[in-house]
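Q: Can someone sanity-check these two? First one:
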Amino acid sequence: MVYDPSLRLPIDVFPCEDGHAQERSLLADVLTSVKSGDVWICDRNFCVISFMFGIAKIAFFIIRQHGNLPWQPAGKMTYAGRVETGKVYEQPIIVTDESGNTLKLRRIRVCLDKATRDGDQDIFILTTLSPKDAHAKNIAQLYRNRWKIETAFQELSAHLNSEINTLGYPPAALFGFCVALVSYTILSTIKAALSGEHGAQTVEEKVSGYYLADEIEMTYRGMMIAIEEKEWLVFRDATPSQLARLLKALARNVKMSKYLKHPRGPKIPKVKLKSDPKSPHVSTARLIAKRKK
């Protein structure tokens, strides 16, 4: 899936029926969708020489460096400042493909204050953007925002049922996932309308995607029965600007309190039970009785 962080929308998808296929096997198809002036932000799994050279022909990229990528330094590493997560350095490097063609890149190093879940203390980011196009700190921040695609996948799975277990045939599973993508686009449009009236920060931090999806699911059938077909023509015939104004007017009347998140408190660590090897069975009834006391 290709996600546009500025629009907060999935804008393209490349289905593959083989669930065990590497994402890298689809990169040739992805290159056909690259447009002039694009900036592609990718994780290190997409740090493939052919893919990077393909993007660099007409667009730009910001890709986390994979440990297996061969490269050569083309200058010294210099300090570029500090971001929220750590210190930033940059260095010019050169990458060469199988045909001997070279590509000059900027290698951004972020020395993290706190290690990642994988234990990485440093993150290296490669980009074709020049210093005039973007400062090293901006590039580090842009890559950090890449996690928004993970949030999109979480909503697709948890709120929109994008992976239905009973859809065993690959074409059916892919169709179901793409239907969920369309639903996600609708959900994002609703959030955008709410943001226009109630503030983007409020919607992003406090509004629950689950409650919005539940409202659509529970209300849709009754709405289609109660509202006549002619009443929907205004949405079909409206221009983009007219539709935006209409959605904002409707969002103005939404009771936001109905759709707010209910964050749970901190998890209470479980106490490990000590069992007697001679009687390893634990009686649930006795544990409950003990808790009541």
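And here is the second, same format, sequence then tokens:
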Amino acid sequence: MSENLKFIDLFAGIGGLRQGFEDENTACVFSSEWDTFSKKTYEANFGEIPYEDITEIAEAEIPPHDVLLAGFPCQPFSSIGKREGFLHETQGTLFFDVLRIVKYHNPKMFLLENVAGLVNHDNGNTFRIILSALDEAGYDVFHEILDAGDFGVPQVRKRIIIVGFRKDFKINNFIIPTTNNKEKFVNEILELDPKGYSISEHLQKSYLFKKDDGKPQIVDFNSKIKVKTLVATYHKIQRLTGTFVSGGETGVRLLSELECKRLMGFNDEFKVPVSRTQMYKQFGNSVAIPVIKAVSCEMKKILNSAI
């Protein structure tokens, strides 16, 4: 049974994976995050301060657990092709830390998340090594690129999800859900004239609308669309990647804190005790909660049936 599944939350950020996985039958026994500002947000919402840099924490110091969650950053892999063992080939990358913990603790299952570009990184070599390393570590591995827009959040946001089950459970038919059959558009999550998010008229004229090319993306209460991916550099007001809102004191404004929460599937009560710049970075780096909820739900079900 999946009651009281113990899990760990690596590269935790502001706890997006945790929010998606956690329920009344689970317990987080360890978390790690190196970013000072993300740790503040994590503590404000979960009542605990994540441990520091995972690269400096020995496997034995991490409590036993049933499930490993990790949104590990993608870095170039060295030693590819030398065939000296996958643990060696991943040394120096943050995936190595996921792998060494998996090999030491042998959790029942894991859920990893990364940018969709990981699949094509270094002509696919990086992803092949990751899959092979997890297979060699004793796991049946499944993966799928999912779009958060198919899970009831109003943005296009593609991410690779990697799920693994220990081979002794003989789970070879796991299907990662590609939708939760909910749809939402940006006009449903907009706030009515929040204060302090206006973009100056000077910046609008000199940069945002300097070309008549249909950019940037401007939305309002009539916009029945899914917006572009919210990125960690949103605070830099980039005309090609940003989505802005019609309204405010100057006619165009940034997405508000509340809108960012809703865009990522966080609840309105989620606490954000950091500056606006850090807030945009944190939500831009996080995961869409409904995606993780849907995948986690299926993982728990199939593990239940296998035990």
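A (reply): Looked at the second one. The first helix runs from residue 16 to 21. The two ends are 6 Å apart (CA to CA).
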